[in-house]
Model the fold of this input.
Amino acid sequence: MTCPWERRYAQRMQGMGSSVIRELLKLTQQPDIISFAGGLPAPEVFPVERFKQASQRVLETHGAQALQYSTTEGYLPLREYIVKKMCRYGIQANPANILITNGAQQALDIIGKILLDPGDVILTEQPTYLGALQAWRSYQADYVTVPIDEEGICLDERFVEALRAGPKFMYILPNFQNPAGVTLSLERRMKLVQIANHYGIPIVEDDPYGDLRYEGEHLPPLVVLDAEYQENQTPDCNGEGFYQGDVIYLGTFSKTLAPGLRLGWILAPENVIQKCVMAKQGMDLHTSSFTQMVAYEVAQDNFLDEHKTVIRQTYKERRDVMLAAMAEHFPLGVYWTRPEGGLFLWVTLPEWMDAAELLEKAIEYKVAFVPGLAFHPSSAKTGHNTCRLNFSNAQPDQIEEGIRRLGMVITMAMDEHKAKELMAV
Amino acid sequence: MTCPWERRYAQRMQGMGSSVIRELLKLTQQPDIISFAGGLPAPEVFPVERFKQASQRVLETHGAQALQYSTTEGYLPLREYIVKKMCRYGIQANPANILITNGAQQALDIIGKILLDPGDVILTEQPTYLGALQAWRSYQADYVTVPIDEEGICLDERFVEALRAGPKFMYILPNFQNPAGVTLSLERRMKLVQIANHYGIPIVEDDPYGDLRYEGEHLPPLVVLDAEYQENQTPDCNGEGFYQGDVIYLGTFSKTLAPGLRLGWILAPENVIQKCVMAKQGMDLHTSSFTQMVAYEVAQDNFLDEHKTVIRQTYKERRDVMLAAMAEHFPLGVYWTRPEGGLFLWVTLPEWMDAAELLEKAIEYKVAFVPGLAFHPSSAKTGHNTCRLNFSNAQPDQIEEGIRRLGMVITMAMDEHKAKELMAV
Done:
């Protein structure tokens, strides 16, 4: 007897399903595996004690409010806090420009809901964030992708070609991009904003790692450059909100505070936020009052700034250990990015190598990563020989050992390939 | 200069927007208004002290886990707890049948995502839950509605007529329905399950108030009756999961523990849950690890059972106060339901009266409710003379005073109407 539910699912579900990579990644959760596959923060740096105090204070002083329904927009003091925080980046916003979401992932879903009709095209970096592809697949979006190099998305003829597809918006991760770890240069940021304004194509700027820079200088977010650009172009645009620009900026507390809270935010022109609020109301009414109030309490007295210093030290060390180990253990012919911040770096294997096959072998040797194909829309015919490594979660000695094993597995694959070539000759 | 964003929104956003009722309801949030408009639990009964202890214990014993990313399915001990809880209702489930959601509202959104294509028809009670209409409007669903009476949805020729529209599923709130407060009788429950099976139309059973019965006998949920029905019909259906039936059951902690946590769940056949998990992954990765673990900790040692006794006492008293005050203050020609549980009752005004106009007047006298039109899909041409009253949130003396004012406002409107009729003669 076949299950009648199979005939009941919506068309959009056909695009979603178990992938080979997802099945492989389940294996990486075995406890004895050194996994570079996830995107998890280091649990050692979670400020557990501070959370204990904050939870007590919230429940003591606003217990009933923390446990009651609240507004869809989010806890006002937290939104005011975010406005102040963003102000330091040069973003002039007010709380009407902010919507609190369940992590930045929900922000992506909301953006899909308010902007995407089936068949709409999104321009993304190649590779790009897996979770965005997942979120927007359910809105039956199509993709055009543009390769990145060490300075981020390539604004050359390939970009111009992609624009011809008439994208609904561009999705850009400017800082320490997930998965590739590269950062968009200032020159390209300015050019991208000009193009967005010239063609009237909005930008969704996803910035989960902006606070986690370990070296080099802070670069202004696209939303700031856009505001500056718009001010010069249309000084009398609109008095409401902070700006009527073309950028939707996404932020999160997941990487600086704790992902288990599920707290992120959308910063956008006020009329866009109003649409987002309408959408979110039907999606889950609002984000947990309790977690919002606890996060606000934890962040008080500049705690978050001090805490970010600790995180940066920890992750910088782990990145350095990983880079040093790769230099030592990876064979010739393998290349990788050198991120100035964030959680990830990107490895390019020889063209003939298949990263998914390599992962199968790696799991035997108790080390794991994510094959690069996962970060490409299914329409992209590239990326089979790439992989993403996370350096924030494993401890330094584990990183060292994991990279040693991975180097060994890659070397073995290369040796085998060479042997086969010789046989064929 | 017009804002370019207006041209960018997805088609589904056209169905969403500010309504007259929504604008009116904003006025009901003034602090000096006695509001029967919301659906808020009584903050006096929140177990704040218990939450304080639970938060401490969670952070002390599993701090890093509570703050870290976790699985989309939800915290396993909480899912096991729900399985045990549901077992008392006669539902044989296992954790693979459960997905934790951000309140039952997210469950509605997920169901829309996995089941609804644009133009799909949903069969609902008339009136029905406003939040479900909001959630599914964004999937561009159509509705057929069937009136309810004191025994719930009417399974007569109007129901048969509605079935001809070929609904994708039926949406039923069997216990102390929101908004009308009525309960589906056992006879109709059994008939509904038979019909669902006969026509192969699944049921989405929304049961937020099932635990809040103040009098009368507990009635089995549709999911239990369906499982029993299926067992007789197809004994060898499938060994996996608890059943391969046609009901998706929605539960929540919002009414028994605290809505500010945003915790609900979906109970469904395992293959349906798998689709829900895929959808939720793209929507927000997972529900807050912290709130799930705190809720689990709070619920330990039968606390939730004891606590429900307190809630039931409090709400029963408030319901009784409201019913007594209505009997005293409402004029002849006004009718209302007498709910055996839940949070709401339903008032039917004379046919000529417009509840939205009445609300305007009521707000002047500092009392508020929700006009019944809000609980009808826009295609329904009925309900203008109805309203929903909440009795859980205001304190007894406020309920007494609010109903006195409301009775006065209704009486004035009726007197004015009579005077106009006399003038016209």
